[in-house]
Write a structure and sequence with these properties.
362 residues; single chain; mainly beta; Methylamine Dehydrogenase, Chain H
Length: 362
């Protein structure tokens, strides 16, 4: 039986399969690539092309570990459902449905595996779908079209939903919208997505919220801003589904430039460290986390040894971090120091065309 990385003890993941999502381009990527991952040593061995599908830019795995889902980030966007073959680790197509918007960039599942959520960046909307018993997706059960704009006329003329994050207690869905400078909040409520009260958390104008990560204790949440290159630390009220800012930490390097932008954010499984990637500078900013207040202290920066780290991920054991350099077709691996949070390049890495997402499956 397969088990999902996020729900299993780290010790169970000495051996797992890493699935990489990519942007497909002519004569380069063809879809989702699979690798054997050794959680003890960090070694990655190629399995091959797991599934051919257009621009699977973000991946999610069902809690039972039997199914994998990918957004297809295109003009008229879609979501593809796959079954994971236990023996070959390849992906069998189940079905493909519309994302109900343009340019879907994120997909997630609730913790029961009954509902799937998609954020459409291009059209600025979020949609929900029921997950059938065989892993396929049913007709959309919930939808919300974001409305409005913000202060930057070049980037914020309209909404741009960038992520759909399920709260730790599985009651709320939080969606950072870059175009509105808001984190929209919904009640999951059987996949119908009614708006929360209050319906959003406001970010500083012109910041462009991109991704959000919860602290393992569920008391804090962190938002990385694409345009501001900051990390907004928030106190999270699980009862009401609300965020309250406690700090805005600068994630940009000293040589900040207009070509730089914030991208991915993750809190280490031990809750002591937080990481945020910066495109243009091609680096990952490291922060220490105060367990009492949730506030951040800068603790260093490391180059991703490539171009445009759109995403990175920490493996289930917390020992390794994989940085995906979209524009240099490379995945660079770092070992995580459990005491300081420092990142040291292992020397291991992969050549994958336009890598932009990864998930681990036991």
């Amino acid at each position: 039986m397969l088990t999902v990385a996020a729900l299993a003890a780290p010790a169970m993941f000495a051996q797992s399969t890493a699935y990489f999502g990519t942007y497909t381009r002519p004569n380069k990527s063809k879809g989702i690539y699979a690798y054997q991952f050794d959680g003890a040593t960090g070694k990655l061995n190629s399995i091959g092309l797991a599934a051919e599908t257009p621009s699977p830019s973000f991946l999610a795995v069902h809690p039972n570990g039997r199914f994998l889902y990918a957004v297809n980030e295109q003009g008229e966007g879609g979501v593809s459902a796959f079954a994971i073959d236990d023996s070959t680790h390849l992906l069998k197509p189940l079905n493909h449905i519309s994302s109900r918007g343009n340019g879907p960039c994120h997909v997630s599942l609730d913790r029961t595996g009954k509902w799937l959520f998609v954020a459409n960046y291009g059209s600025g909307s979020v949609a929900a779908y029921p997950v059938n018993g065989d892993g396929s997706l049913g007709d959309s059960s919930g939808f919300d079209q974001h409305e409005g704009s913000s202060v930057n006329p070049a980037r914020q003329k309209g909404p741009h939903a960038h992520e759909a994050v399920v709260s730790p207690d599985n009651r709320f869905l939080l969606t950072p919208d870059l175009g509105l400078d808001k984190v929209m909040v919904y009640s999951i409520d059987a996949g119908t997505l009614p708006k929360n009260d209050p319906p959003f958390f406001k970010i500083a104008p012109g910041s462009g919220p991109r991704h959000l990560a919860f602290h393992p204790n569920g008391k804090f949440a962190y938002v990385v801003t694409e345009m501001g290159i900051t990390v907004v630390a928030c106190r999270y009220d699980a009862r009401r589904g609300t965020l309250e800012e406690v700090q805005t930490a600068d994630a940009a390097p000293a040589n900040r430039a207009p070509t730089m932008s914030g991208a991915e954010i993750e809190v280490h499984p031990n809750g002591k460290f937080l990481y945020a990637s910066v495109r243009g500078d091609n680096s990952i900013a490291i922060f220490q986390v105060d367990p009492g207040t949730g506030k951040l202290t800068a603790a260093g920066r490391v180059s991703t040894e490539g171009k445009t780290p759109r995403a990175f991920a920490i493996d289930p054991s917390g020992k390794f971090l994989l940085a995906m350099n979209q524009d240099s077709d490379s995945v660079v691996e770092f070992r995580v120091d459990a005491k300081t949070g420092a990142l040291t390049k292992t020397g291991d890495g992969l050549n994958i065309p336009s890598p932009v997402s990864v998930v681990f499956v036991k």
